[in-house]
């Protein structure tokens, strides 16, 4: 809407003479600029995580669906960034044409041409110029680097290129520090954006001038402009006042407040009560902080000041709200996590993210985790167990993992649940299925030898590990037949391909007497 509106706004009489020089390239430059302002207004909001947490809590009571949409904040942030990149490209290309047209008007020095007459306005008189290139000896590149619009435009473009290229998944995963530090170039981007229009290079005819000299009539009489007996005065031009600040000021203030809240939280004392290094290169931190309150499935940002005062990394909470501490399991996979193991002193910001209390709305729940995606279910399984004493709920848990080492720390939790279920004679509370999707030949031989053992050779659980991938059609059919007349909540934390498969199964197995509700967005 903004693009179309601003495109046609620059086809009015006010911009008649500007279009004589630039043609439709004028509208093609100004329309994406309007769309850029709108998207730059939005880009900071999805990363104001304290604001999102407040909004989620506010609208949770009214609409759970709307609250879950807030959990897609980073997806929205990326989509807005793509639109900023697209409109920036269109804006730049259009202005490159504009500068060429400005230059052509100066080079073709023929007083019988309207383009030359318009370009000469402001040269031998005190009137404001229309053509920012003042002589035929000027290089457009020099104008680009000696004007406010040119300098800020170059700074904005370079910052945007660095931000976008460093945000590619391969860079973000392999060189997170590069992604983290270059993303802070957004400060330069927004400063340049606010001041970009202060030069008022693109100008249109003023309202007073339009009342005196109608361009549709006077354009044909340009040779007699301002002469005695002429009804057409020399047109007067002015640029629009800069308006980008009106779009981005409020989001910038919100983001500054967000950073101040984070700064305050980072100085709150965090007491580490227990540190466990699991054999699978997974560090478990159990912590306490005054006033800390969490829900299942949430995450926190952790900073280690002795490693870096700027880097904050998100980790899912693996403790339950009913426990007197909160915990996170951190895989040692990079420089930052490696350094953390030797300097365990942290600051915490959060908790954030989905409060997955939808789990407790269903009598029957399917939890599906893939690989490291099992982490949120640690909190959920613990909390469901604590609540099961009051609530009659049945859980079907599936974990798909490509390597045996990753089973270790989570198997400890499952072993604890196994013992508690046996102690309270509630073995039907949790049906869990663990799948190993890849294995080596040497491991296969070991599994065969110990397959008859009481406990599983991989996890140490009573429940045996299954090999390969689940037959989801059979699983959904069995659950539907075991629980007629119920709504089954299906919760996934895993790759998109698995999500599509489970969503398809939910649709195909939902019938009159049983309904499967897919909830991937909860995590």
From TrEMBL:
<keyword id="KW-0560">Oxidoreductase</keyword>
<keyword id="KW-0249">Electron transport</keyword>
<keyword id="KW-0349">Heme</keyword>
<keyword id="KW-0472">Membrane</keyword>
<keyword id="KW-1003">Cell membrane</keyword>
<keyword id="KW-0521">NADP</keyword>
<dbReference type="InterPro" id="IPR013130">
    <property type="entry name" value="Fe3_Rdtase_TM_dom"/>
</dbReference>
<dbReference type="InterPro" id="IPR017938">
    <property type="entry name" value="Riboflavin_synthase-like_b-brl"/>
</dbReference>
<dbReference type="InterPro" id="IPR013121">
    <property type="entry name" value="Fe_red_NAD-bd_6"/>
</dbReference>
<comment type="function">
    <text>Catalytic subunit of the phagocyte NADPH oxidase complex that mediates the transfer of electrons from cytosolic NADPH to O2 to produce the superoxide anion (O2(-)). In the activated complex, electrons are first transferred from NADPH to flavin adenine dinucleotide (FAD) and subsequently transferred via two heme molecules to molecular oxygen, producing superoxide through an outer-sphere reaction.</text>
</comment>
<dbReference type="GO" id="GO:0034220">
    <property type="term" value="P:monoatomic ion transmembrane transport"/>
</dbReference>
<keyword id="KW-0285">Flavoprotein</keyword>
<dbReference type="InterPro" id="IPR000778">
    <property type="entry name" value="Cyt_b245_heavy_chain"/>
</dbReference>
<keyword id="KW-0274">FAD</keyword>
<keyword id="KW-0812">Transmembrane</keyword>
<dbReference type="Pfam" id="PF08022">
    <property type="entry name" value="FAD_binding_8"/>
</dbReference>
<keyword id="KW-0407">Ion channel</keyword>
<dbReference type="InterPro" id="IPR013112">
    <property type="entry name" value="FAD-bd_8"/>
</dbReference>
<protein>
    <recommendedName>
        <fullName>NADPH oxidase 2</fullName>
    </recommendedName>
</protein>
<keyword id="KW-0479">Metal-binding</keyword>
<keyword id="KW-0597">Phosphoprotein</keyword>
<dbReference type="Pfam" id="PF01794">
    <property type="entry name" value="Ferric_reduct"/>
</dbReference>
<keyword id="KW-0406">Ion transport</keyword>
<dbReference type="GO" id="GO:0042554">
    <property type="term" value="P:superoxide anion generation"/>
</dbReference>
<keyword id="KW-0325">Glycoprotein</keyword>
<feature type="transmembrane region" description="Helical">
    <location>
        <begin position="178"/>
        <end position="198"/>
    </location>
</feature>
<feature type="transmembrane region" description="Helical">
    <location>
        <begin position="79"/>
        <end position="97"/>
    </location>
</feature>
<dbReference type="GO" id="GO:0043020">
    <property type="term" value="C:NADPH oxidase complex"/>
</dbReference>
<feature type="transmembrane region" description="Helical">
    <location>
        <begin position="142"/>
        <end position="166"/>
    </location>
</feature>
<keyword id="KW-0851">Voltage-gated channel</keyword>
<dbReference type="GO" id="GO:0046872">
    <property type="term" value="F:metal ion binding"/>
</dbReference>
<feature type="domain" description="FAD-binding FR-type">
    <location>
        <begin position="259"/>
        <end position="358"/>
    </location>
</feature>
<dbReference type="InterPro" id="IPR017927">
    <property type="entry name" value="FAD-bd_FR_type"/>
</dbReference>
<keyword id="KW-1133">Transmembrane helix</keyword>
<keyword id="KW-0408">Iron</keyword>
<dbReference type="GO" id="GO:0034702">
    <property type="term" value="C:monoatomic ion channel complex"/>
</dbReference>
<keyword id="KW-0832">Ubl conjugation</keyword>
<dbReference type="Pfam" id="PF08030">
    <property type="entry name" value="NAD_binding_6"/>
</dbReference>
<keyword id="KW-1017">Isopeptide bond</keyword>
<dbReference type="InterPro" id="IPR039261">
    <property type="entry name" value="FNR_nucleotide-bd"/>
</dbReference>
<dbReference type="GO" id="GO:0016175">
    <property type="term" value="F:superoxide-generating NAD(P)H oxidase activity"/>
</dbReference>
<keyword id="KW-0813">Transport</keyword>
